[in-house]
Write a structure and sequence with these properties.
alpha/beta; about 270 residues; Lambda_DNA-bd_dom_sf; about 15% strand; 434 Repressor (Amino-terminal Domain); 2 domains; DNA binding; 13 helices; Endonuclease, Chain A; elongated
Length: about 270
């Protein structure tokens, strides 16, 4: 039987939430509540997620969103608001804090649908990422190189034996503000069989921020949206569907992949 990973609830709010969930589940298991053993798998079935998702919550690796927190409260018979209020506090945290759930789930995603006013992070080059971070004052300028290195490390997912699929709609504005290296990177990934880039031309609409829908191997889905110094990750079904519709609307108005490649080449010529 695998050893249970010890979690220090004082390490952070994510770990505290995980400890609350685990203690409540273990208490029910000891009491054999409703005649069940209350394993992670059983709790997962009760709240309609995977066993892995419950494990992530209990270890504090990926805290629940408000929807899942509410379901856990009800199923584990915890006081109303005991988890959802804590999750609400997490959602009001800093940019690096609010991105934690998304970044952890990003590594496990099988497919991405993205609509963004900048080049998506998973396709960014170091020089482009550095300019965005400096412009957004993302932490101490002296630490920017470290942030960029972390940013680039997340792109290791493209080197997996079975890399994810990505369909990205990028606002044409991003092409006019990209570095030469970034434009060449877009042309290179456009040739990859698992990545499709479409450009939303001027006059076809405005993409405010970044909107991403993630699909996981088990069919579960999540949605992430980010603006200037704010963002949110959710696996609530209604939220995911809303952002899928946002993506679909932009994709329908965007140029084809072939026409988008031509538009990127035009941007390259302007930059020379």
């Amino acid at each position: 039987m695998p050893r249970v990973r010890e979690v220090d609830p004082g390490e952070g709010l994510e770990q505290y939430i995980g400890n609350v969930v685990r203690d409540a589940r273990v208490d029910k298991a000891r009491a054999k509540a409703e005649g069940h053993e209350w394993s992670q798998s059983y709790l997962a079935r009760r709240v309609f997620v995977s066993q892995t998702r419950i494990s992530e919550v209990e270890t504090g690796d990926v805290p629940p969103d408000r929807d899942l927190a509410g379901k856990l409260e009800s199923t584990l018979e915890l006081p109303t608001g005991s988890l959802t209020n804590l999750v609400r506090i997490l959602e009001q945290a800093t940019v690096r804090d609010y991105a934690k759930p998304y970044l952890s789930r990003q590594e496990k995603a099988h497919m991405f649908h993205v609509a963004s006013f900048v080049v998506p992070g998973l396709l960014q080059t170091p020089d482009y990422a550095r300019e965005l971070m400096l412009a957004g004052q993302a932490g101490d300028p002296r630490d920017i190189d470290s942030y960029v290195d972390q940013h680039m490390a997340r792109q290791k997912i493209w080197g997996r034996e079975d890399p994810p699929w990505m369909s990205a709609v990028i606002d044409e504005t991003a092409l006019h503000r990209s570095t030469m290296a970034q434009l060449e990177r877009l042309l290179a990934v456009q040739e990859m069989p698992n990545i499709t880039i479409q450009v939303l031309p001027f006059g076809a609409g405005y993409i405010m921020g970044t909107h991403m829908v993630l699909t996981f191997p088990d069919g579960a889905r999540g949605a992430y949206t980010e603006g200037f110094s704010t963002g949110n990750y959710s696996e609530d079904v209604d939220t995911v569907l809303r952002f899928q519709k946002v993506y679909d609307r932009f994709a329908a108005s965007a140029l084809t992949a072939e026409a988008s490649t031509d538009r990127i080449n035009e941007a390259v010529k302007r930059s020379k």
